[in-house]
Design a protein that fits this description.
globular
């Protein structure tokens, strides 16, 4: 709980706001596809046939609507906890940092996608060679991949917000 030692109320406010924004965006996707995406996200069931002709647009619309949210929240918790910024200021500076460094973030996301696809392919190959090892190989890939992703968050923060010679 040491992460909540400084600026705890702001961190809870950021978390609550993120929850509301996420739910609002996912529920609003129901207007486009009749609730198919919401059902998929809640239950994991792939709809057999969509009730809407525009259902194929839903993932792209959600991605487009989530992009500013991702940018605003990328650094916001760190700025609130380590720098003591209020919620609005941390969201603003995080968003501005995302806009100013969009090229680096694009390369970052493409690299994450390439690594993720590589891990999926490796997991599929392992599960094909060793019967029944499919779920275990995905679990191992997650245990390897997730710490790398979370470590990259800190490195990204240091590159964007911490001046050379200055400590966080």
């Amino acid at each position: 709980f040491s992460g909540f030692a400084a600026n705890r109320n702001t961190l809870f406010l950021l978390g609550g706001l993120y929850l509301l924004l996420s739910l609002g965006l996912v529920f609003s996707s129901s207007l486009l596809d009749g609730g198919d995406m919401l059902r998929f996200l809640m239950t994991g069931q792939v709809p057999e046939r969509s009730t809407s002709n525009l259902a194929w647009l839903t993932p792209f619309l959600l991605l487009a609507l989530y992009l500013p949210v991702f940018m605003a929240y990328w650094y916001a918790p760190v700025l609130a906890a380590w720098h003591g910024y209020p919620a609005a200021k941390s969201l603003f500076f995080s968003f501005v940092a995302g806009v100013r460094n969009w090229r680096a973030f694009l390369i970052y996301v493409l690299g994450l996608l390439a690594c993720g696809l590589g891990m999926i392919l490796l997991s599929v190959m392992v599960s094909a060679m060793l019967a029944g090892a499919g779920k275990l190989s995905f679990l191992i890939a997650g245990f390897i991949g997730m710490p790398i992703v979370y470590a990259s968050f800190y490195v990204s923060y240091r590159d964007v917000f911490v001046a050379v010679g200055e400590e966080a």
